[in-house]
Amino acid sequence: MQSRELNIFELFYQMRFDGHFAFWYHVIHPFAALGFPVITMNIISWLLSLGAAWLLLFKSPFHKIVKYSLLLSAAFIYWFPVVARCYTLIPIILFILVYLYPQQNKKPLWYAFFIGLLAHTHAYMEGMVGVLFIFYVWDNILKPWKTLPPKKKAINLGGAVLILLMVLAAFLQVFPAFEYSHAATIYTFDSIKNIISELYERLHYGLIYPYSGSLQPGTTLEFLRNTTFGKIFIFLLLLFVVVIFYYSKRQFIIFAVALGWQLLFALFIYQMGNQRTYLFFYLLIFACWIILLSADKNVRKNSIISFFLILFSFLSYGNTFNSVIHDINEDFSSEQKIANFINNNVPKGETIYFANYRNITINAYAPDYTYRYMYTLDSVEFEHYGKHRWKEPDFIGNIGTNAFILNKKNYYYAVFDFPIDSNQIKKETNNKISFKLLYHAAGYYYFSDRYVFKVKKIY
After folding, report:
1. What is the pLDDT of residue 308?
2. pLDDT confidence of residue 190
3. Cβ contact 381:395 at 8 Å
4. Whole-number pLDDT of residue 159
5. Mean pLDDT calculated for residue range 394-411
6. DSSP annotation of 359
7. Exposed, middle or buried by CB within 10 Å (0-12, 13-18, 19+), for 151?
8. Which of 93, 157, 358, 407 counts the highest number of beta carbons within 10 A?
9. Euclidean distance between CA atoms 292 and 455, whole angstroms
10. Considering only 108-112, 252-256, 336-340, 367-371, which range has the smallest mean pLDDT?
11. Are the CB atoms for 305 and 419 separated by under 8 Å?
């Protein structure tokens, strides 16, 4: 929707409200601006994932069984190719980077460019960008400086400057989000104990549960849903990290810094979930890919690393199976159904009020309406996401009266992600306002329930 409504320069400005980088929006912008259907995003996402799969199949040093196991994981099968979001850019850029890694001396500018480009995918990847930048400077500038000819010095320095400029461009896009976006909230804790406790909770919710929680109750694998599995999972991950440390101290540092940044980000700013859950999986692939590029063909090393990669792929198969089955039989969300109802039942040009930012994607399917935000029923103020070509936030203190004044009619339409108690509303408004439920839809993704109401004055 943003890519359709805004031009290239407006998209950069819009990121202060969105909290993401403009790169993904620019990728889909030409298609959205030309009126291509929304499914074009999924096609682009699928093609990018196909490119990552091609690199894995034909350029990686893994055994065929490992490659196929990785491609059957939930990350490769579902979350990155199917759910079209900015995260789909990450696998292919990581794999291009790992492909260029041994060639960086010959192609420093290309390697630097893709490090900088990784910074524009998602804030979760900035730790990875930082540590790759440090090693780039060491490998291509500081360590060989005395032996480099002047031209090579200039090129390698240019690569470092390119990375810094690209990171700065990314930072300037999203830094204002701490002021404007509801999602960019810095959490604080009053003790180290609370930090550790919260970190474990977020690890369990964001990293462990997607591996185990998708397994249906009553199956033979139901035991994986409990906290015992969480402890086993963390133990296996730590054991894998020890293996990486044993075979490559550098790859251990890269993985530890990259994952550590993601954990800190999840703890203090933005929780793990969905694609963010599986970013660590791609970090593992990155580390192991480079380790196996070494000249020595150590069979034991290859076998151990292959075992762990297959293991972590296998652990996600429950999520793979359930995600695919859900997607075949159910809608991921209710946005399109709600939009279709609005298109077919609400007169064009009407104003539709939202009580939650999650509803705004309906606009992508139903563009012929004016959309505004309102307070939720408990009068909690909602932070507006954006301004360009959208209405400025209308702070509606009373869910009824002010909206009627603004709409200049005796009715308006509203979309909520929770049901409304019409009798309670009548009581709170002295029987002056009625809520009539017109339509309800839901998808299997959490927070996907949507309710369309017609709100009327009672005379």
Report:
1. 96
2. 63
3. yes
4. 97
5. 53
6. G
7. exposed
8. 93
9. 63
10. 367-371
11. no
Share of the chain above pLDDT 90, in %: 43
Name the token pair of 20.
């993401």
Q: How much is the pLDDT for 87?
A: 95
Does residue 381 surpass a pLDDT of 60? Answer: no
Rounded distance, CA 355 to CA 337, Å? Answer: 18
DSSP notation for 260-301: HHHHHHHHHT----GGGGGHHHHHHHHHHHHHTTSSS--HHH
* Whole-number Cα distances in Å, 167 to 69, 119, 349: 34, 6, 41
- Helix (H) / strand (E) containing 422: helix 422-428
Q: Which of 47, 24, 195, 244 is nearest to 120 (CA)?
A: 24
One DSSP character per residue, 100-147 reads HGGGTTT-HHHHHHHHHHHTTT-GGGHHHHHHHHHHHHIIIIITTGGG
- Strand partners of residue 354: 373, 415
- Give the separation between CA 98 and CA 55, rounded to whole angstroms: 10
Residue type, 345: N
What digits encode the pLDDT tens for the residues 138-196?
999 999 999 999 999 999 999 999 999 999 999 998 877 666 555 555 565 666 667 76
CA 5/CA 11 separation, integer angstroms: 9
> Could you please report the per-residue DSSP string of 44-104?
HHHHHHHHHHHHHHHHS-S-HHHHHHHHTSHIIIIITTTS-SGGGHHHHHHHHHHHHGGGT
pTM: 0.83
Identity of the amino acid at 202: R
Tell me the C-alpha to C-alpha distance, in Å, between residue 111 and each of 114, 143, 456.
Answer: 5, 17, 60
Q: Distance between CA atoms of 281 and 262, rounded to whole angstroms? A: 12
Q: What is the dihedral sign for C-alpha 155, 135, 70, 275?
A: negative
The amino acid occupying position 320 is T
Distance CA 183, CA 123 (A): 13
User: To 5 degrees, how large is the angle CA 103–CA 257–CA 169?
Assistant: 70
For residue 407, the SS3 value is helix
**Strand 370-373 to 351-354 pairing:** parallel
Average model confidence (pLDDT) across the chain: 81
Residues pairing with 413 in the sheet: 352, 454
Instruction: Provide the residue type at 110 as one letter.
Output: W
Give the CA distances from residue 22 to residues 16, 86, 108, 184, 384, in Å, rounded to whole numbers and listed in that order: 10, 9, 25, 16, 18
How many angstroms separate the Cα of 106 from the Cα of each of 140, 156, 251?
10, 10, 21
Cα atoms in the Cβ-side hemisphere of radius 13 Å centred on 264? 10
- pLDDT of the residue at 380: 29
Q: Order of strands, edge to edge, in the sheet holding 351-354?
A: 370-373, 351-354, 411-416, 450-457, 433-441
Which of 137-151, 213-227, 308-322, 439-453 is least confident?
Answer: 213-227
